[in-house]
Amino acid sequence: MEFINILPLILIGSIYFIPSFIASKKNKYNKTLIYFINIFLGWSLFGWLAALYLALKKGQRDHFSEHNKGLRM
Fold first, then answer.
1. How far apart are CA 50 and CA 38, in angstroms?
2. 3-state SS of the chain?
3. pLDDT digits (tens, 9 = 90+) for 7-28
4. Contact 11, 3 (CB under 8 A)
5. Tens digits of residue pLDDT in 43-54
6. Which residues contact 54 (CB under 8 A, 6 or more apart)?
7. pTM of the predicted structure, to 2 decimals
8. Dist. CA 49–CA 30, nearest whole Å
9. Least C-beta-crowded within 10 Å: which of 29, 35, 48, 55?
10. Number of other CB atoms surrounding residue 29 within 10 Å
């Protein structure tokens, strides 16, 4: 019964941090900025959308990091 009460919080938390998850998965060069925007401004729709935009935006530095993925050790 207690799990049913916690389930909405887990669901809301998962949705809230989608931009951070995307930035981490894509290994964005500015993922720290995205984390901070998501944590501190994500409560507003504008802040959440800004973090999501930055996480999904393809940048020149991201292309460079994708090109050199095989060179990392």
1. 8
2. CHHHHHHHHHHHHHHHCHHHHHHHHHCCCCHHHHHHHHHHHCCCHHHHHHHHHHHHCCCHHHHHHHHCHHHCC
3. 999 999 999 999 999 999 999 9
4. no
5. 999 999 999 999
6. 19, 23, 28, 30, 33, 34, 37
7. 0.76
8. 16
9. 29
10. 14
The answer to whether residues 27 and 61 touch, using CB atoms and an 8 Å cutoff, is no
Angle between helices 45-56 and 31-41 (to 10 degrees): 160
Nearest alpha-carbon partner for 44 in 12, 13, 16: 16
Residue that the structure tokens 């998501």 belong to: 38
Burial 45-69 (b: 16+ CB within 10 A, else e): eebbebbbebbeeeeeeeeeeeeee
